[in-house]
Please model this.
Amino acid sequence: MQLSKKHYIIISLIWLAIAVIFAAVIRGSFLFGIGDWFNYKYFLHTHSHLAFLGWIFNIIYYFMLKQFELLDSKKYGYLFIALNVSVLGMLLTFPFQGYALGSIIFSTLHILLSYIFAVFIYRDTKDKKSISRKFAMAAILFMVISSIGPFALAPIIANGLKETIWYDLAIYFYLHFQYNGWFILSIVSFIAYSIKTKDNDNWQRAYNLFLISTILNFSLSTLWTDPGWVINIISVLSSLMQFHAMFLISKDILIHLRTIDKFKSNVMKVIFGLFLIKVFFALVGSIQEVAMFVYYNRNLVIGYLHLVFLGIVTPFFFMKIANDLDILKSTKHKRIIVFYLVVFLLSELLLTLTSIGLNGDAILFITKLIVYITWLLAGITLHITDVYRSAARKLSS
Model:
């Protein structure tokens, strides 16, 4: 089945819209009674799976096919449909049963199908020697590695270890290699591809640093177990490696940004700055006391995850889709993207404020604000997806 680019884009955006609606319901449950039908954990699992596998996986899938000129290959169309059938299965099972037989079957199916994608794209691009291809293969490798986390959950639970550190470590393993490997390195691959003239030696050094640091930086996700000072040092060094990697490619990126649309350039600079903030937070989080403080303050963990997902990854792909659909210069589009970023930053600030020791009326007020800001951000995101889907429907192919 040969899908056109509008199908890839529209399906990805539909899943994002549904994930956003689940996020709004979840956040609203903090203030309002929703009913016995609502199970917080079940809805949270649904939201995260749709966001990861319906939105980010699909949109990376599409742009990788486009980057490597594979959109005309029918096998990727059939595979994409199969992948999204598994996502649909998760939507129809997770809200009602959480992790149970049905949802596990569909999530396992998606993992197995993602392995097929990894094999296909490796074989179909092995004649290409570009640095962008190296980053893409590294991203796919970490996507495959991340699946060790979910597969480890079954034996952990079967051996009665669900209430031990191993259960949480398996989840953090998955999250780390998804966020810092699959998501981030895919973006670096797309950036490397868009920069036609660059210092290849620096990009190769950056590639080596990203590869090593992504592996070593999983240490940051283990610090809450108090593993000892050696792991703290590894966490610090891996974060510094990422700073160095970004420094090596920053000159080429900034030069490239001067040659493109001013608005897109400014948004990309904001995304670049947020990535540097992310790495800085990882560096600070390498301090044992800070790591423990963050672990026991859930809103800080959510804020960090949202920093990557909502502040870096999603706006980056919004800009790529807008550029793909040729609506980047629309004044309305520019305003809504700016509004999105402002509201996102406000949500991050509010999540941080909940962890500085406020109590009583102050914390209740901020909690309410977080709910309303979440709804506002959800509304903005739904509007953006609607604009993009409308533009995509007009495409002839």
DSSP finds 14 helices and no strands in the chain.
